[in-house]
Design brief:
The protein is of the alpha+beta class. It contains 1 helix and 4 strands, in the order βαβββ. The chain has a 4-stranded mixed beta sheet with strand order 1-4-3-2, covered by helices on one side.
Length: 71
């Protein structure tokens, strides 16, 4: 999976990569984002981009970036 580089406001030391997880439903993806974001922060809330496709970003408490997909 490829992605564009984030804007300057999202660029932090160590975010040269992001881990991606795909789910079969938005509620599963949201639950995962909430667990990963515990002690971290939501970078981009889970939003519907194309009908039926949901994408969000979260940074966990260790500083790892995650891209969460649902379809």
């Amino acid at each position: 999976i490829g992605t564009d580089l984030p804007g300057d406001e999202m660029r932090v030391s160590g975010n040269a990569f992001a881990l991606g997880i795909h789910f079969d439903s938005a509620p599963e993806a949201l639950a995962c984002m909430q667990r990963l974001g515990s002690g971290g922060s939501a970078v981009r809330t889970l939003t519907e981009k194309i009908k039926g496709t949901w994408i969000g970003n979260v940074q966990d408490k260790f500083g790892f970036q995650w891209i969460i997909y649902a379809r």
